[in-house]
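Q: Could you fold this chain for me?
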Amino acid sequence: MILLTNDDGIYSTGLRRAYETLSEIEEVVVVAPITQMSAVGRSISITRPVRIYEMEIDGMKAYAIDGTPTDAVILGIYEIIKDIPDLTVCGINLGENLSTEAVTTSGTVCSALEAATQGSKAIAISMEMHDREKFEPTCNYDFENAKRVLNWIARKVIKEGLPKSVDVLNVNVPRRFNGKIKITKLARKMYETRVEKRLDPRGREYYWIYGIEIENAEENTDIYALRKGFVSITPISLNATSIATLEGWEDEWESKRF
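A: Sure. Below is the predicted structure, expressed as structure tokens.
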């Protein structure tokens, strides 16, 4: 069984396109936020109840929740499926999810991390598109390349599993696909952060947080690959511990004898 979720909401075109291709492989259970939930990271609704609504959208049976993508994974596994799915797929996201920024903020990637924590193999898949399209529930983009890539990766992961120490595959499909894939590492940063101050009609200050894309991207990173037309596949581990050691810190603390 495949659990399918997203952070763009239950009515997203990308979710339905993912359902179409995954249904060719196994039974698919769709559990997703009822509204747009981009950039909520791995937040969980622990201070309020979450409701589940059964519905059907263009022939796709689905469970909509009034919570976060991570809530959707938890409820999908423990309340709806009541078992660990063979695979959890998060997407197809409207807009790319690249760099360390996306891994810590994207509801798509973070819901995949939650699924991996619960013991499921997990794929986060996103499609590059123009900024003005990213936060709309529907779009007219051609999803055929993304569907083909997802179908191949899902079959491969279900059959072969994931390599040791890999918990999530973060997949990004370019608008202009060159027909090839590239195994990549996360770029450090995709955006130069900006804050714009404005005034509302009553003269009170408010702020828009946004970012401007960084032009240069290091070779072999997800950003570099996508800009060259490759599908970027980045293996992600739940273990965020740095390989660097804080050598001498323990001894220094002991010597201070605070």
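A (continued): The longest helix spans residues 144-160.
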